[in-house]
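Feature request disguised as a bug report, sorry. It would help if multi-protein outputs had a clear separator. Right now it looks like this:
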Amino acid sequence: MDKYKTKLIATILNQIDQWEDSASAVPHEEVYRFVHSIKGTARTVGLDELGDITEALYEKIDVAEKRMWQLEECQLFLQEVIGYCKKIGMTTKLTKDQPRILIADPDPALLVEWKEYLESKSFHVLVSTDFEKTVDTLYDVKPDCLVIDAGLKDEKGLPLLERLQASGQQMLTPVMVIDNQPNRENRLNAYRAGADDFMSKPLDIEEFEVRVTRQVGRKKQYDELLLVDELTKAYNRKYFQSFFAKQQSIFTRGKEPFSVGIIDLDCFKQVNDTYGHVVGDEVLKRLASYMKQNMRSGDVFARYGGEEFAMLLPNTAKEEALKLVERLLNGFMKLNFQVNQESFTCSFSGGVVQVSEGGLSLERVMERADKALYEAKKKGRARVEVYEGQEVVTQKVKVAIVDDDEIVRMMLSEVIGKLSLPSNRVIEIETFPDGKSFLQSEWLQSEDRYVIILDGMMPKMDGLEVLQRLRSERRHDQFKVMMLTSRKSERDIQKALQLGADDYVTKPFKLLEVEARLLHLIKRGM
């Protein structure tokens, strides 16, 4: 949605420039439509201050007036608008890269309060009242700061931080523990278990925001310094990007082709669901160790994200790269993983692309490798495919908009349709005027991934009932649900969180916020 802010600012300044270039009088109708248009758009894209300025100007201008504005008069009338737009254009960096905060607390009312405050300070906040969902979200999202209530325990009574420590999960994610019994023993226990900070309830909300900001800042510094993935000890994405740039420079000079590969563990979620995240982490570590030991000297192996890894193979054509990755796959499938008295094996799928033209960005190369990877997945997994400029293999996620307001459905459909995704990812959008028609739809009966945008208040069946039905009747991992609620419906928000909503947005919402949140949920749903 930042592009909409940028586009609006550019449109305004472009119109001003056109009037100035023409050096002629401006018809009153043009000035009126100009102010009216900005007033209706500014707040929608998140420029509230600009909305306030144009609202005041709108009150001063009469639609029925018939006259011509001299250029100087027009500039004077719009001087606040012009000044604001130039200031934004020169000094404001618009970005969707908000720090991600995960807060786990059994009290949904407190989560609502903290989420609203931190998001007003430009954080992206995910909340959870459930222990297992917190663990899943932590592994899935990898937040920039984890805030946990000391009383949140699993079915065995083990606090979350102790469980993470016992699992051997080496997190660089800073952890803040909050406790309504901040005695000395509890504070010491929290720090012994690995907490980076401790606050007592009730929280001083401003101090809370300052301390979270400090932890996020430290995390960013660590990320910028490290070139090795903390869990697997493979290189990280930052190092891979740097090495790719060097390899492109070498290619430009010598025209010697090289290859890039991408591999993805097959059915890795099933491993996590069956054996737990601790075993899943062990699989990732064993894979990285095996690959590093069996790849050639000079090859680079990096963790690219989640269970996805990238390889850069210098001076290697695609035919040789294919044989190399197939050899690595065959060896890896022979490894045995032990869990108590049970053993299992794993495989991966891979895609390889040869880089034989200069100027290709890493993003473009990885997109091509990704296409080959999904061709391998499509053909049954545990295989490697080479990119040959073949037809795009697409991965689909279905997005449902369930709202009785036709305008909201149209607006959200447009926003979703313009989301920027890789070319081999597709979104299928469907809208529903009520929860009953949604649940009865054949469109809902597939095994695809779904992201559901669900209005809280609808005729026939409200959003909470729909959410409850989804969570009770369907696979939990098949759906990501965003609730649309009223600011006055705090109880509904709390109930939605308890029922397993993944996120919520309050009406009236800003399209900028909705786009960022939807993009996040859709990527998690793929």
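(second protein starts here, but nothing in the output says so)
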Amino acid sequence: MFKKILIANRGEIACRVIKTARQMGIKTVAIYSDADRNALHVRMADEAIHIGPPPANESYIVIDKVMDAVRQSGAEAVHPGYGFLSENSKFAEALAAEGVAFIGPPVGAIEKMGDKITSKKIAQEAGVSTVPGYMGLIEDAEDAVKISNEVGYPVMIKASAGGGGKGMRIAWNDTEAREGFQSSKNEAANSFGDDRIFIEKFVTQPRHIEIQVLCDSHGNGVYLHERECSIQRRNQKVVEEAPSPFLDEKTRAAMGAQSLALAHAVGYASAGTVEFIVDGERNFYFLEMNTRLQVEHPVTELITGVDLVEQMIRVAYGEVLSLKQEDMKINGWAIENRLYAEDPYRGFLPSIGRLTRYRPPEEVAGATAVVRNDTGVYEGGEISMYYDPMIAKLCTWAPTRLEAIEEMRVALDSFEVEGIGHNLPFLSAVMDHPIFVAGDMTTAFIEEQYPDGFEGATLEEGALRRIAASCAAMHRVAEIRRTRVSGRMDNHERKVGDDWNVAVQGMSFDVVVSAYPGGANVSFGDGTVMKVTSDWTPGQSLAMIDVDGTPLVLKVGKVSGGFRIRSRGADLKVHVRTPRQAELAALMPEKVPADTSKMLLCPMPGLIVSVAVAVGDEVQEGQALCTVEAMKMENILRAERKSTVTKINAGAGDSLAVDDVIMEFE
């Protein structure tokens, strides 16, 4: 077996590979840019080598620099993770020339499957059904519009060398096709160094389901069933699960057989994924083959018990695959939620900064439940603008899908992240959404269910009552502590009252708190009584509470006169007041936010790529105003209404912070 491998990647996946290599007794080498000098993967590896400045195109994807690190380290093999150089045939060739093993498929398979145009042609020849589209090269935006009309809207504009949602746009008309072509081309060039674009029919009401395959270099192969990846935003997967709640055994077997046939057709060896679009009738169409480890591989590992990284290493070493198809049983259900440094309250825009608090839920590996968190960050670390915004993958497993969902709900509520914007509230809301719970989602789930963006979950009255009861009990504990600290409880002359008013999410509850050791009975005005038990003490940021025998996890922050509570996707201000204070509070006027309707504010830290208008221009609602690049993705900012541009404060090449004014209108 290899004695030392280099991981040509960073972040969560580098840490993931290091864990398996350590279990196998293999030493690891990390590479890092200036921005990653103190990164977790650097700390975890046995040794680390610096390879350049923060931008990936000056460090992580520069083959010569990575090869220098391989030579310096004396590594016998390289695991590329995903993204970066993982599907770069030139990198695999460079390693082969040095006599270093590539922990991935053969060069020929990478070239054939890594190019989406070529892969579709091969899939067709192998008898795999494919989505209609134009596989030739597209010269310019006008050519893209012409082809889109021939294929028929809606169309998907995709980078031939793309992946991870980069270089993808859906166009519903000529304007979007024109703009999408240019944005896809730019993103593809920046992310992959290859700006070739192709166009295919966009299948409406689709589900995104993929098959995991594993093959060795001796002609053996198995498929490890499917993953459902339908909940996506901008073609970037957010929630994945295995197996799919939609497939039946017949469709699963057919998709698995076609996936293996395609893998064998290109002489595939290593772990790979064949992605399909599946319609409502369970007709499936080949999208692409990812010749690498997928981000969402943990859910497959959890339902099969197979360590895919270990198998990749063994295959690269030349071992015969020990797995047989009849052994690939589905055990239970697994769900993965991707934690992104994206602010759901600002249109999921990237958020950067220091993680002032990062406390994942405790990992569990039991017979009836598993909680797993694959991460590449730590408390006090920094989220950089240079790389993908994903900072962790939270996974749960249980015997059934509903049990796995419930485990995920509790795990999400127990996950503490502060200092940056993040999508934990959104993930919690998805786990409670009836469409997801029923398993009826499509890839349009987010845009259909949150057409105006995510503004936090709205909890039903039963949930609000549980939170109100909990906060009333917590507030009483805090008040007792405060009076003791201030000395006002001398001789028991001053006592904390039992009557309170709790205001939350527009509702008001008059309650009476009857305390006892370790908890309290909270009585509501309608006669309802809730029994609240908890060992929470003031200052703790996480409250583990039991309300009438049901667990409730609350993220707790302090606000004047109460708490900031985050639970199940809701971000709530809960005010706990005496009856008299509640009367006075009702008379207070609400603060009106500042008027920024005549300004275009930068929604995220980023770089202005282009400005599409000039001072004096009249703009229409929906018209593109400028393009901002952040975390390798281009974002087109559009006019919200008809107006005239009166001032432009930034131009192409300018770096802006959140809420910097880009332009102003009359």
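Even a blank line would do. Unrelated, but nice: The domain at 132-201 is CATH 3.30.1490.20 (Dna Ligase; domain 1).
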